[in-house]
Amino acid sequence: AQSVTQLGSHVSVSEGALVLLRCNYSSSVPPYLFWYVQYPNQGLQLLLKYTSAATLVKGINGFEAEFKKSETSFHLTKPSAHMSDAAEYFCAVTQWNFGSGTKLNVKP
Amino acid sequence: DAGVTQSPTHLIKTRGQQVTLRCSPISGHKSVSWYQQVLGQGPQFIFQYYEKEERGRGNFPDRFSARQFPNYSSELNVNALLLGDSALYLCASSLGEGRKAFFGQGTRLTVV
């Protein structure tokens, strides 16, 4: 079975600070891993996708994620938070198994 | 290019009624997936269709059914609605499994 666990349902950072959203996965086979962002009352938008080509994956809007097999992790980071990053972020393994989400709040 | 379109955007139904939600994928996409997102939770996978055949089914009761048409559009049907069916229903299309999925803005279903 494949699943993901997102640690922290709410994360709050100051504008300009590092963003770190945590995701751990469980998979018996090499996984496809995804990060999505959801703004209020909207669908999901793909930020980035891991497909085993490279362990560090760069996505849109300055986000990146690093695949660490030894830690079964795929944490999402952004060096400097912007107010427009405030949204809910979902980690997923395959297209079918989503985490419960992390709401990111960015303080001015 | 048009993205994934879902209709209606909002609807309100009464317990016990039936509802049909519609999804038009991006042109050229043959895979459509449906998800239920209850407020405060992540999307839960309901169905995937590829080339008009069901390729995956999540842990939902038989009250939920879907189909994909020759033009690759899709419908999700839910019978005997329960209050717990109130959610945002998302449709996503892609070229196939493992490929980038594009989501519609969803249909907000409220069951009263």
Overview of the molecule:
The complex is a heterodimer of chains A (108) and B (112). Chain A is mostly beta strands. Helix content of chain A is 0%, strand content 56%. Chain A has strands spanning 3-7, 10-14, 19-26, 33-38, 44-50, 56-58, 64-68, 73-78, 87-93, 97-98, 102-107. Chain B has strands spanning 5-7, 10-13, 19-24, 31-37, 44-50, 53-57, 64-68, 74-78, 87-94, 102-103, 107-111. The mean pLDDT of chain B is 94. With 112 residues, chain B is mainly β.
What would the keywords be for this entry?
heterodimer; A: 108 residues; mainly beta; six-stranded mixed β-sheet; five-stranded antiparallel β-sheet; B: 112 residues; seven-stranded mixed β-sheet; four-stranded antiparallel β-sheet; globular
Q: Count of helical segments of chain A?
A: 0
Q: What amount of the residues of chain A lies in strands?
A: over 45%
Structural class of chain A: mainly beta
The largest sheet of chain B is:
7 strands, mixed
Structural class of chain B comes to mainly beta
Order of helices and strands of chain A: EEEEEEEEEEE
Report low-confidence residues of chain A grouped into runs of 5 or more. Answer: none
Distance between the termini of chain B: 37 Å
The largest chain-to-chain contact, stated as pair and per-chain residue counts, equals:
A-B, 19 and 24 residues
- Report the mean per-residue pLDDT of chain A as an integer: 91
Number of helices of chain B: 0
What's the count of strands of chain B? 11
The proportion of residues forming helix of chain B, as a percent range, comes to: under 10%
Secondary structure tally: strands of chain A: 11
Integer-rounded radius of gyration of chain B: 13 Å
Helical content band of chain A = under 10%
What percentage of the residues of chain B does DSSP assign to strands (E)?
Answer: over 45%
Unreliable stretches of chain B, pLDDT < 50, 5 or more residues? none
